[in-house]
Amino acid sequence: MSEEIGEILVQADDLQHKIKEMGEQITRDYEGKSLLLVGVLKGAVLFLADLMRHLDVTCEIDFMAVSSYGSSTESSGVVRILKDLDAPLEGRHVLVVEDIVDSGLTLQYLLRTLEARGPASLEVCALLTKPSRRTVDLPVRYTGFEIPDKFAIGYGLDYAERYRGLPYVATLTLTDD
Ligand SMILES: O=P(O)(O)OC[C@H]1O[C@H](OP(=O)(O)OP(=O)(O)O)[C@H](O)[C@@H]1O
Ligand code: HPA
Ligand SMILES: [Mg+2]
């Protein structure tokens, strides 16, 4: 099997422009509040780092690692916690930061888990969404871009742990040799 970077789905400039807009919107919505960003490792690392540069509110970060894809292009459907948050969520305004909502299974699991910890509020900010693949209906308050039903790489998104550092989002083309 050989692999190559396919068509570009979201250009680097468009990503950065949208992230600035999202940061400004979140700043307005959380004015006067203290925000806890929960980054979902590993994919959300680039997005969270860029987003928080556009937040003008008191803000802390924490991370959770869950994995359902491994080195496959299809979700296994079984979500596992690999690393939990460092601090309790009780009474906190929590914003979950995701790179992509695809089937929605990861986020469904996360929201159930985090809601049970008693946050003051719990919302989601996702850079990318694939609405055509969604198997569960979820409340995503902030969304960057809708992308088609194709396996995407770049800007945090991996295939077998590679390609996360690309500054744009593209498709991955896999061909049998
Ligand atoms: O909506 P879903 O179908 O559940 O897919 C979305 C999730 O899958 C990816 O994570 P992955 O499990 O690949 O871990 P990673 O972030 O470390 O790559 C992505 O970062 C989301 O967290
Ligand atoms: O399209 C994708 N690419 C990489 N990781 C993913 N996790 C869910 N969907 C995707
Ligand atoms: Mg992955």
Structure notes:
The protein has one domain: Rossmann fold (3-Layer(aba) Sandwich), CATH 3.40.50.2020. Helix 1 (12-29) packs across helix 2. The strands form two sheets. A six-stranded mixed beta sheet has the order 4-3-2-5-6-7, with helices on both faces. A three-stranded antiparallel beta sheet has the order 1-9-8. The protein has 177 residues and is an alpha/beta fold. The protein has helices at 12-29, 45-52, 105-115, and strands at residues 2-10, 34-41, 58-67, 80-83, 93-101, 121-129, 142-146, 152-153, 169-175. The structure holds 1-O-pyrophosphono-5-O-phosphono-alpha-D-ribofuranose, hypoxanthine and magnesium ion (MG). 1-O-pyrophosphono-5-O-phosphono-alpha-D-ribofuranose (PRP) binds next to strand 2, strand 5 and helix 3.
Name the helix and strand elements from N-terminus to C-terminus, one letter apiece.
EHEHEEEHEEEE
Tell me about the biggest sheet? 6 strands, mixed
What is the CATH architecture assignment?
A: 3-Layer(aba) Sandwich
Distance between the amino and carboxyl termini: 5 Å
Pfam family, one: Pribosyltran
Enzyme class: transferase
Catalytic activity: IMP + diphosphate = hypoxanthine + 5-phospho-alpha-D-ribose 1-diphosphate; GMP + diphosphate = guanine + 5-phospho-alpha-D-ribose 1-diphosphate
Cofactor: Mg(2+)
